[in-house]
Amino acid sequence: MKRRSLVTALLTLPAVGLAIRSMPGADSSTITNADIQAMQNDWEALIPQGFQPPSVADKVKFSAAEWRDRLTPAQFDVLREDGTERPFTSPLNNEKQAGLYVCAGCELPLFTSQMKYDSGTGWPSFFTTIPDAMGTKRDYRFGWTRTEYHCARCNGHQGHVFNDGPKPTGQRWCNNGVALKFLAAS
């Protein structure tokens, strides 16, 4: 485990609980299960003109050297070595346009702008995902169990999902901004 990742996680834990309790948009009357179903079914309406989203079935696998050539050092650290970027450093925290958030490693669509909310944690957060875009596994690195999620196409580490998000899903998909690219809708 990287010392920087452990220190970052430990320093942000107290702030996470406070931020979640005071999170804007966490009122269950604002988003319904039907709204979420529509977001998950209709995400293709946000595909930018000229962008052809890849299929999750077209798996991507490169050597470490090939990934290093394709990604920035920060992207490689997060996507390929399960690193964590510092909180409040991603420009995607303030992104408000309509569009898609795709994996920075392989461009598989993972989230839409409609799924994003401000959790106050310092990382882009989402209350649901595009169906079949993610794989999950248990992560025991910090001494407690967390659920890590990764891109289903290239297996790039994205972040962790927690059960302290807004209703009705109750989920917070806490994503590293460097693991994503934002594509504005046409």
Radius of gyration: 16 Å
Q: Please state the structural category.
A: alpha+beta
Q: What proportion of the residues is helical, as a percent range?
A: 10-25%
Query: Tally of extended strands?
Result: 9
Mean pLDDT: 86
Strand content: 15-25%
Describe this structure as you would to a colleague.
The chain is of the alpha+beta class and 186 residues long. Helices cover 24% and strands 22% of the residues. The chain has four helices and nine strands. The protein has helices at 3-21, 33-41, 64-70, 73-81, and strands at residues 99-103, 109-112, 116-117, 125-126, 134-139, 146-151, 157-162, 172-175, 180-184. The strands form two sheets. It has a six-stranded antiparallel sheet with strand order 3-4-8-7-6-5. It has a three-stranded antiparallel sheet with strand order 2-1-9, with no helix packed on it. Strand 3 and strand 4 form a beta hairpin. Residues 3-29 have low confidence and may be disordered.
Task: Spell out the blueprint of helices and strands.
Blueprint: H1 3-21, H2 33-41, H3 64-70, H4 73-81, E1 99-103, E2 109-112, E3 116-117, E4 125-126, E5 134-139, E6 146-151, E7 157-162, E8 172-175, E9 180-184
